[in-house]
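Why do we bother with a discrete structure alphabet at all? Because it lets us treat a fold like text: something you can write down, compare, and reason about line by line. To make this less abstract, here is a complete entry for SP-RING-type domain-containing protein. Read it the way you would read a sentence in a foreign language you are learning: slowly, and without expecting to understand everything at once.
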Amino acid sequence: MASSSHGDQMRIVATQFCSDDQTLIAHIRKTMTIMKEIAVEFEKHNESDKVKELEEAVLELADLSEDSVHLSSAVQAIANGYQPKEEVVNNFRKLLEDEVSKLKGQYTTSDPNSNPLVRQFKEAVWKVHHEGQPMPGEEQEDIVMTSTQSSILNMTCPLTGKPVTELEEPVRSVECKHIYEKRIIMQYIKSSNRCPISGCPKKLRADRVVQDALLLIEIEELRKVNKETEVEDFTLLNEDD
């Protein structure tokens, strides 16, 4: 009973921590969006030094956001897989550091443009004076709208067929980053440990399928983009009529 109680307490604390972390990340992303808008105004007035300062600040915030996501995922993974062992209690900090390092090794990239908000910042500034032209180092066909880019790899749950924007309790695999409905994927894992996404070779563990701090934020951003797209499509249809 005591060990079960300790495990429950760890999961409660982890959930609260991740909720707080999610709030922090949301504020960071809003700040990066505001900085992008300010940089565009500076670029219009050819104040390139100020644009550069903002870009450097955006890169720092992107790193902070990424570190926060890794920390949140690591805390949840450890809490979900908690076993009442003495080494877990005595070496919790090392366990956390090792888990964060593992996540950074898997998902951190040296390319700052891999962060959608960094990419959006640079594109917005570039378009002020180069509308319709590819950014340096890109071909014309490589230009894409990045306002919808995020870390969401699958737009529907492979087990329920529901769009991720309609899932009741979405969770994401720490290993492969695919998203599922929690209740359904936990049932699935009892009989199979292979990711149900076609072609994905990763194996799933219940303690490593979590609601990381960025997931709900990205899903909400996706909802907003979908609504904006629906409005644009409706407007175009009315114009055609």
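What the structure line is telling us, in plain words: Residues 1-128 form one domain. The radius of gyration is 21 Å.
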